[in-house]
Predict the structure.
Amino acid sequence: MKDTEIKRLLSANVICIFSIIITTVLPSLFLKNFSLLGTHLTWLCICSATVGTVNVVLHIILNPNPSSRRSSLAHKVARFLRSCVYFFMSCILFHGIIVLYGAPLIESVLETFLFAVLLSTFTTLHCLCLLGPNIHVWLRVFSKNGAMSIWDNNLQITSMCSVVGAWLGAFPIPLDWDRPWQVWPISCSLGATLGYVSGLLFAPLWIYWNRKKLTYKSR
Amino acid sequence: MRLRSAALAASCLLVQALGAGLFLRGFFPAPVRLRPRRGAAPNPPPEPPASGSFSNWTKLPSPLFKRTVIVLIDALRDDFVFGSKGEQFMPYTTQLIEKGTSHSFVAEAKPPTVTMPRIKALTTGNIPGFIDVIMNLNSPALLEDNLIWQAKAAGKRIIFYGDDTWVRLFPKQFAEYDGTTSFFVSDYTEVDNNVTRHLDKVLKREDWDLLILHYLGLDHIGHLSGPNSILIGPKLSEMDSIIKKIHTSLLSKEEGEKALPPLLVVCGDHGMSETGSHGGSSEGEVRTPLLLISSAFNKRSGPQKPPELVQQTDLAVTLALGLGLPISRNSIGKLLLPVVQQKTMREQLRYLHLNGFQLSRLLQENVPAYEKDPGFEQFKMAEKSHGNWIKLYLEGNTSETLINLGKKVIKQYLEALKTLSSSLSKQMAQYDMYSMIVGTVIVLEVLLLLLLSTPKALSSKAQLEVPLSPLCSLLFYLLCLMLCAIHVVVCTSMESSCYFCSLSWLTAIGVIMLVSGLLCVILSAVENGFVNPKQPTKNPAASTSSWSEFDVLILAGTVGHVSSLGASSFVEEEHQTWYFLVNTLCLALCQEICRHYFLAKECDLQLLSAAKPGTEETKGVSCHHRKDVSLFQDDLKMVSTTKDISDSGKWMALVTPWVILICCRLLRSLNQTGVQWAHRPDLGHWLTSSEHKAELSLLAAVSLVMIFILVQRRCSLVSKIAMALGLLGVYSYRAAIGNVEFPWQRDSKDISKGIIEARFVYIFVLGIIFTGTKDLLKSQVLSADTKTKFTGLWEIYSGLVLLAALLLRPHNLPVLVFCLLFQAMIMKYVWKPLEFDAAQVTIMHYWFGQAFFFFQGNSNSIASVDVSAGFVGLENYVEIPAIFLTGFATYSGPLLWAIHLLCYLSSEVHRNPAAVGHGCFCYALLRSIPVAVYIILVTALRYHLFIWSVFSPKLLYEGVHVLITAGVCVFFTAMDQNHLRRVQD
């Protein structure tokens, strides 16, 4: 059973990676002057939207955490609305942290916010899909030994990798190379994306290697 | 010999400071000089002899100009004259450049672009060594041969008005002078009027030959508000009108006379960067205009050419030849040919030959293998063809061929001069490798020793065995002998000068014994550690699995910072690294706090979740969801109000990292430092501009009150009163020198140096420190409780805070407030309840200290050192106190954090008796790792393009920091001793 789970996970992750690759290649066919660096904001929007949609669709198809009790439509709508609020709040929170890290407060607000949206897409949206708008579950998953399925492990690894990627992505900014990718927030968002992609690749491998050690408590 | 870890750390750092000093001495090259020769100055060389006949022209050529006026405008950038600003604000000068009889150049100044070295370069024609910047404050009389000396010796009367640096450099040379001081940077009108007021009288008089004017106003405007300030335009217009006045007066004098024409030189000593500071090597700082105006020149005709790029050192030789003076001996400049172009061919060749002869003689004395130098060969070639030309000339040949041949010789000469000059300036960048290697070896050995003794030094005893037995072993004697032999061989075969070889043999042998002794100790430590490991399990480094994420972050941060030092941009923007690390540290602390408070109550929570539907099991939190955590915490609080856990403490602990993060963001925008973003507007500039004086006064007053509130908590009553009076004194000092104002004295204009006020504060600083020391001594002698000792330490700390409040620039007082606030909050709510161990707390203190170093507005360039701190409360420049005060003001951030660390650790001794020792050891280790790595990096990068502008200033900063840290560690050791003795009793 575990191996099939891992295969499902791997395929889901490969689809995510594929969608990211598509967002860098495909828009240039439709949009004039589109390039990853030149029109970075457009790319940020497209990438966030695509990854978000793919994640939601994948979640609906694969449905890794089938909920036990059936819920009414009103409950579902409430859940959806709460998810939206959570997502927005996480964007704001990320924005705040990025500003605290030294991003300009007023100028290039849009860039900073879109970068925050991208980060939220990579981390919070995953959590929302997988765990629902329930912070206490999130806290459980992100604490030590809190993962209850390989999906939780995958979530941990990809979120960590995205955040660490964004963190590392800030390092080239002070270098005086005057490259187009050193402009705020390109290096950070590229770092986050690369971190996310490598997390997506790394998580199934890691789970596969440690499949003997991973024992999950039942709910 | 048993040593406490604090004692080991302190002695190691002292040795390391010695090693770093030796390295620095070897790294900064001694300037190229002619050996001083006794007796009369050598006669000028005759014209090169043509084969067969001899020329009898042995005297110096006659002068070109009679009188010379040099107008030196401090911080005049090339685009202020040649750019759009020049066209707009300096119409007369622009017209002179375009149509008048003038030659314009862009003179490139070599870094460090600071006034005194630039004046030296302009007058001696030599490039002063980098070490001159350190002596910039001091500026003793110039001891090298220079233009002013030569002019004086030739009986010329020199008059000087302007920056008093000149007066200090040339104390006896001026017939008449009036020095203005660059002490009050905020004054940019008076300082120039003090120069201009003499102008009318002097221009009417006939009794002078050389007039030098040095205007400081533009530089002050640059420091105040940068090159794009609205104040620049009127200042440039003022300068333009001065140039016009001088030029018209010179022209009117000239009409009546048949004698030689006068010369007007307009130049800048250095430019200014985009922020308005200088000292580095950005294009704006390096490029200065050089304008020579004289009716002797031909009128400009034809299309406007962009001004030619020359070296600043070229002016000295050009002026010397133009005034008929001998070229100063150490000049490496080359003649600006356009200036002498209207002379006859013979005279032009004569000038070039004189210049070349002087350069080649300088080369002969400084380079052992000078004959192989391409410049020297070219010069010999040119000399030969010059001889041929003379032969033809003396034969009476006046045909076209003679002119063509002359042109060819001129070309040859120019080529030779260029090569000679560049190879001489390269000579200045010769490193004294032997001293550097010895210094590096010492620094590395100390680092190795510290690293090897880490496990034992951080054990619970904080004591370790330093084996002294190998000092008597055969290996030690053999090493000593071998190193002595190497020393003798190296020193006898050395071609260039070497500092370590010039030391007396006793000192050299002492250093050699130190090196080999350290090596032996390290070897025996390695042997103990690896060959016969007795307690392998006690090694904390071995049990890596027990490392938390926090330890990983600390380690990664340290390694990351050290490795970033290899890139010039990261050295320039080092503050970014530290801000980034401190931010991450705060977030990690937040996570730690959450984990601490929530893991501890896991059981309670499980009970809770049973009672409250919808709440699931909770174990910990991630740091990225702090908002949620606080919400969650609200939930908890509502339910568990009955619990008698210190809820407010927990709440404060959760809030602390966020308060610190927000304050760090504020501080970051207070002073923009570094290079790339330094021109961004910041709060500091906004506050210091003259129209925001009221805001600055309010801020300073509030900050001082806050400082008092934060500091007085732990002081005794006497020092509380002293502190309050001292802080009042600080405010009145700032009001006296005109930085801030009292609300009741809005329109007072009298600005003084505030000496009385500053000394008033000094008395209280000394008083508070004295009470603190008295308490410390009492606690040591009477072995009283820890409380007396803590009060004593805190009083010393508050004395230093008061001193920092006096010395820091008024807009930096909030930095001091936030420093105290962070320390108080983080100590009370984070470190104490979470029981971090001494090593972790030390590393955090070090990081915060580094961040505060940059929050103060410091950077890794020399330009950002606030020299005015060295003059607070002093009538004149006094070397020792000025150096001490400047050093304290610059490093007040790291120092205050270090002393606070000592206060914290010694209040923690009841929990961990070895805390002070551990802290001291970690502090020493943290300092010695970057220094050792940086020294190796700089040695490897010594031919890097930015070595002088970026890496060397940083090296100086590192060296000074090691020295200061060594002092701090000695203080730690002294405190540690007291404590241990009491424990043993």
The longest strand of chain B covers residues 102-108.
